[in-house]
Amino acid sequence: MLPPIDEIVSNFEFLDEWDDRHHYLMELGRKLPPLPDEAHNEANRVRGCVSQVWLETHVDRSGAEPRLHFLGDSDAHITKGVVAVLIAFFDGRTATDAARADALGLFRRLGLSEHLTAQRSNGARAMMERIRADAEGVAAAA
Questions:
Q1: Is 49 an active-site residue?
Q2: Which residue numbers delimit the Fe-S metabolism associated domain (predicted)?
Q3: pLDDT tens by residue, 45-61
Q4: In the chain, fewer beta carbons within 10 Å around the N or the C end?
């Protein structure tokens, strides 16, 4: 089970060396709940990632405003850790809040912006855009 985003941020701030952060990122990826086999499909695949990445968006309409929940997976360990950070950051937010959330700011704060390869950074941005597009679609339909 993924820790809350505040705990992830605290843990990243505690780790001084990029090597330790790198290992923690991979550990987060291992904590992702499994994505069902049938969810590894083209509709859930995130385009713009060199690695294979799948994000499945679920909408909870039981409250006053729809809330988003995510499942995700990747075939690469570090990328799977990036998926985990993004899910911890966005999961449970209202659609409106998720559409406005500053995930790039989070990545800068965690030091991921300067330590991920250009390809992984582009993939992370593609994941953020996918989540934002899903959130905007849900918010517009509400």
A1: yes
A2: 10-133
A3: 999 878 999 999 999 99
A4: N
